[in-house]
Each structure stands twice: as C-alpha cells, then as structure tokens.
Amino acid sequence: MEKELKLIDVNKKYKLSNKETFQALYDVNIEFDKGELVSIVGESGSGKSTLMNLIGGLDSDFSGNIIAGGEDLSKLSDKQLNKYRKNKVGFVFQSFNLISHLSILDNVTLALTLSNVNEKEKEEKATEMLKKVGLEGHLKKRPSQLSGGQKQRVAIARALINDPEIIIADEPTGALDSETSMQILQILKEIADSGKLVIMVTHSEKVASISSRVVEISDGHIVNDKVNTKYKKEKNVELKEDISEELPEKENKKKNSKEKQTLSMKSAIKLSFHNMWSSRVKNFLMAFGVAIGIGSLILMMCFSSGITDYIDNTMRSYSDPTIVTVSKKGTKEDITSMISYNPFSSEEIEELKNDINGYLTENNIDFEVTDDNMEFGIQMMTMMSNAKVIYNPENKFVDYFANSGQDLANSGLKYDTVIYMYTTPPTYTDTNLSEGKMSTAEGGVMFSKGIKSLFEDNSIFNEDGSSKQVDICFTYMDAQNRPYNLTFADQEITAIVDTSVMSNYMVMYIDYDYFQSLFKNNPNTDGNALSPNSIYIRTDSEETTNLINSYLATTEKYKGSVEEQLAGMFTSMSSIIGTSLIVISCISLFVSAMMILVVLYMSVSERTKEIGVLKSIGARRKDIKRIFTSESFLIGVLSGFFGIVFNLILTLVVWLVLANTIGIVPISYRWWYFVIAMLVSIVISMLSGLYPASKAAKLDPVESLRRE
Ligand code: ADP
Ligand code: MG
C-alpha cells in the first residue's frame, strides 16, 4: 500500500542573492506512514524547520517530489496547495502562533471559517475538539489568559479541526516545561495512535524516546532513521472514531465536490471587526480624523447649495410670475454694463414691443404687449457716482457738490453712501417691507436695512410717529456720460425694504413717477424726464411670462432685471467659493486617505505573524486580501458615520454663530449628501486599503512565521 508521505530526492536551496544560494537540504529520501509518531532531531540550523515547511506545503520552492496522500506537492497549483494546507495537513508551532485578538474558540474555528462552514457546525466541531484537548472551560478566553501548555493545546485543536491526515509540529514543546511537555506529547501520541501521521521536531531526548521513530538530520542530510521497538500504541484511542465519524457526509461531500471553500465576506468582516476592536483606540482616532474631512465636506456642500437656495428664494419672493422684466444689454458684457445706466429710447421701446408681439403671434399666443400692460423703471448702480444720503434733522444747509463732498465729513452730519437707486418695481408688495408702508407717487423713499445705522435709535420714525427725513445727493451720468449733480432735500422715509440679497448695502427705492417728478423739477436737469432702463410687462399668465423670458434670453438686445443679474453674479460667486471650499475638503480627505494607508500598512507589519498563521492553515491570497479589504471597508463605514455625526454638530455650531451674527443661515441639506459622504468615506478607505491589502496577501508564509 502507498505510504501516507513520501519524499523523493528532495533538495532545498535558499536564495541569498542573485548569484548565491544556500543549500539547506540534500537528497532527502524518506517515507512515513499513518499512525507513526516521528521525532525529527538534529542540531540547530540542520534543516528541520526547512523540512517541515516543505512537508506542510508552506514552501513550494524545492526540487524533487513530495507525495502526500497521493498528491505530488511539486505539481500542485497555488490554489491546490492552499487546499492541501487547509485540509490535509495541520501545523503546530513552538511559539503557538495563536491570534491574540480572537477567543480560543474563534482561533480554532478559524480554519473552518476559511472553508465557509456554517456558524453552528463550526462551533460544535471546535468545542468538541477543545474538549478533547481538555480546554472545555476556556472557550471564551483570550490566548493571553492561558498558560503555555494550554496555548499549545489550542494550537493542536486548531491543527486538528479540519481532520488532516498529517500533523506537523515544529518544536511543540520547546517553550514548555517538562511536565507540560509530557502532557502535550501525550496528546500528540494519541493523535498518532488514532491513525494519523504526526511528525514533530524536538530537542528533547525524552520526547524523542517516547516516539515511534526518530529521524536525525545533520547539515541537511538524513544521517539516522531508527524505529523505536519499545513503542506502545494506546489501547482505546477514541480520537480516530470521533473525528472521522463526526461529520462524515457533510465533510466528504464538501471535499469531493467542486467545493466553494472560501472565506465568506461575513466572516472576513467579523475577523477584521475583532482585530479593529483589539486596537480600537488607534482605529477610533483614525476614523475621527477622516470624519473631520467628511464632516466638512458635507458642510461645504450644504453651504454651496444653501447660498444658491437662499438667492433663489430671495429672488422668488421679489418676483411676480406674471411680470416680465426687461433691460437692455450693454455693449460690454461685464460688470460695467450692469453699473452703467443704459436707457431705452422711445423707438427702442416700440421695437421691444414689436419684437415680443411678433414672437407671440408666431407661436399663436393670444397675448399682446400694449402701453396698458407696460410699466417703466429706473435702476442705477451709484457707487461710482458719489451718491450720499444725509441725515439732517436740523435742516442745516450743506452744499455738498460745491465742496466736492469734502465738507460733509466735517459738518457733524451723519451720512451714508447709496450704492443702488431703484424705482420700486411693480413686483414689490407690502410683504417685502419689514416696517412702514410703500412709498407712492405722492412721495417718500424707502431704504434697505443698511440705512438704520444713520440713526442713533435705529428707527426710521421720530418720537412723534412721523417719518425721519433725509437729503439725497448724487451725480447722475446721462446716456452720453455727461454728469449732472442732483440734490433731493427733505425726503421722508416711509419704509424699510427687506431685500435680503442687498440688505446690508444701502439701497434706495423710490416710486417711478415720483422720481421722474423730482427730476423734472430739479433745475439741473432742464426739466427733462429720465428715460427708463427697465421695462415691466404684465402678462396674462405664468406660461406667457416664461415664454417671453425664454425668447428674450435668445436675443442679443435684451436681458433680465439688474436684480436678476446681481443674483446671477452672487450665484456664480458663491459657486466659485463653494467649489474652492469643496476642493479644500478634498485635500483634507486626501490627507485622511494617506493616514488610513499608513495605519493599515503598519497593521500589516504588526500582523505579519497572524497572516503567516492564516496562510499555514490554508488561507488564500484572496482571503487575506478580503480580511484587509473588509477592514478598510469597516473603517470607511465608521468614518462615514462619525463624519455625519461630526457634521451635524458642526452645522449646529455654525448655524448658531451665523444666526446670531449676520442673521442669515445659508445651509441647505439634501438627504443624498449623507449618502455621498458615506460613499466617499468608504471609497477613500477602500482605495487606501488596496496597497496594504495586496502587500499582506503577498507575504511569504515561511518568512512571516519566522518573524519574531
Ligand atoms: P532548524 O530548524 O533545523 O534549526 P532551519 O531549517 O530553520 O534549521 O534552517 C536550516 C538552514 O537554512 C540554516 O542554516 C538557516 O540559516 C538556513 N535558512 C533557513 N531559512 C532561510 C532563508 N529564508 N534564507 C536563507 N537561509 C535560510
Ligand atoms: Mg527550526
């Protein structure tokens, strides 16, 4: 009958450099059979461990043949070697090599976990096995809570769990005292007597004397091979029956079919969760670091959309869906075209009317622009033209223009600069006023909130309830760029307009007809009215409005209201700011990614031994990769979660600060920001985990087990 294990002309050379090699084994020819308890003896450095690693399938770089259980190891693929390690051979090491962050039970079930056996079956089997080595009371303990002998028993239970035919033990008693050594030896003897092949390396004469056969190696050569004639088999060995009969059908089915012996994603996550928990402080700190990046990213997205929403809402509250606002496009499409006053002549007004009506007729719309549904307005940006509003309760006379404005500073009067003069658009209603009432063609001016700083009591009303009065002085450029200096004295303030977009600037609103009458009556204007630069068309429906607006957008001649353009400018400004904030967040995320990479990379070095153990019990590269990948996945999920929590706290703080300072909170949440944040966090972690994971997967098992 074929022997269980046969080595034919096995030579092993270690590569030292490109040219040099070191031969550790020379022409090893030896056979072992089931039921043997073999001791391998020899001086340190003689090649014992090298031999064990070859037999165990940990090292496949050799010449010759190793035939184990009918399979020639030199001809097996990586995949088949993994299977061999997992099912055919069990490893016991001198230094136990238990995984410290897993419980005793989990250490033993690990090999089954790699085979994707179901949870219940795993536990039953492992518990049974631990019972056999006398550890039933210690299932939930950690390796660090056990004595050396107990640890080695766990290692033996782990080696036996997949019911291998060959057990390899490299100095299993080397770290134990003699009494414990004997107990371990007894267990190994029982295993051998149950019909398995046990090969152990030992230095102890006593240990060797108990085994059934002693093989001596010296400098890579087998120099002695003696059978111990006094060896006595145990009488009632239960191990054999128990282990092989326990799960005969399931096991065999699995072994024979094209089995799916892989580490399930669930088990990988569980394993990495255990590991993460064991270094939780490090992981929590790291996740917190990433969370700061993620949290800020969400906040930046919220800011970005918040500002846009805010402007949109503001715009909507000042726009009437049935009114079309038209102004003329300037010659230059830049900010100066918005500032410069660009009026319609009466011919141009007719032209606009015809253009729109022509378009409407073409599209069979039953609406016509007439003089009756048209209104006019004037919008001037005056920050370039020296516009001042002066609070002058005692009616002192100041000739502002005669003194080029110099004296105003020394006059003791309070004044402010108007940046925007605006005839009240027909879209404005009482709801746009924060106090007071609309000014009318009879008179009165309205201001944005900014004007209140002129008055000590922050009120536009005197104590007797009457309105405060101001003088308005400004230089006006006509269409030919000729300057006119105008002063409108003693104007009553009737209301404060809450135009949120502009509310912190000084904006003046005045009725169109009243403005025109002031103009005509001013000696400097030669009695001329001011041509309008805005035209409002009151349509019959929102659809007509939209239709006309979309038509105007296609023309070269016309554009929307100055307010609309301002809002557009704010929007593009805020999107630039928003984008740069998001870019900054991305940089911080990049830093986070580097941090994850470093931490995981270090974790690979720390866990070299563990990876070696996993490989020795049959873990494939894929499994190792999966463990590390799921670890980075968990870090991603954790960081994403922390990031969201951090973001909510951060937003609350920012909210409170903004609400109590500028009174505007431009923060808008979209539910999918959280989804994006979570995805970003997971993707970043997993990307940063790629390199460490593949490094871990590539580790050489022999080298990693050798590592101290
Ligand atoms: P033993 O287990 O009998 O003490 P080993 O099998 O570990 O000895 O080593 C046998 C010889 O091979 C030693 O001389 C050792 O230095 C050498 N050796 C072991 N591993 C390597 C390696 N990875 N590279 C080079 N030489 C090695
Ligand atoms: Mg050794």
List the helices and strands and how they pair.
Layout: E1 5-15, E2 21-32, E3 37-41, H1 48-55, E4 63-68, E5 71-72, H2 78-87, E6 89-93, H3 104-113, H4 119-132, H5 148-160, E7 166-170, H6 178-193, E8 197-201, H7 205-210, E9 213-218, E10 221-227, H8 239-246, H9 248-256, H10 265-278, H11 280-317, E11 323-328, H12 335-339, H13 346-362, E12 374-377, E13 379-381, E14 388-391, H14 406-410, E15 414-417, E16 420-423, E17 433-436, E18 445-448, E19 469-477, E20 483-497, E21 507-510, H15 512-521, E22 534-538, H16 542-554, E23 558-559, H17 562-606, H18 608-616, H19 621-660, H20 671-698, H21 701-706
Parallel strand pairs: 3-8, 3-9, 6-7, 7-8, 16-21, 18-20
Antiparallel strand pairs: 1-2, 1-4, 4-5, 9-10, 11-22, 11-23, 12-22, 13-16, 14-15, 14-19, 17-20, 18-21, 19-20
Brief overview, please?
Helix content is 46%, strand content 19%. The chain is of the alpha+beta class.
Features:
708 residues; alpha+beta; Rossmann fold; 3 domains; 9-stranded mixed beta sheet; 6-stranded mixed beta sheet; 23 strands; 46% helix; rod-shaped; binds adenosine-5'-diphosphate; binds magnesium ion
Q: How is this structure best described in words?
A:
The chain has 708 residues and is an alpha+beta fold. The chain folds into 3 domains: 34-47 and 88-261, P-loop containing nucleotide triphosphate hydrolases (Rossmann fold, 3-Layer(aba) Sandwich); 278-311 and 571-706, no CATH class; 319-566, no CATH class. The protein is built from 21 helices and 23 strands. Strands 13, 14, 15, 16, 17, 18, 19, 20 and 21 form a 9-stranded mixed beta sheet that branches. A 6-stranded mixed beta sheet has the order 6-7-8-3-9-10. Strands 2-1-4-5 form a 4-stranded antiparallel beta sheet, with helices on one face. The radius of gyration is 44 Å and the shape is rod-shaped. The relative contact order is 0.11. Residues 239-259 have low confidence and may be disordered. Magnesium ion binds at residues 48-49, 170.
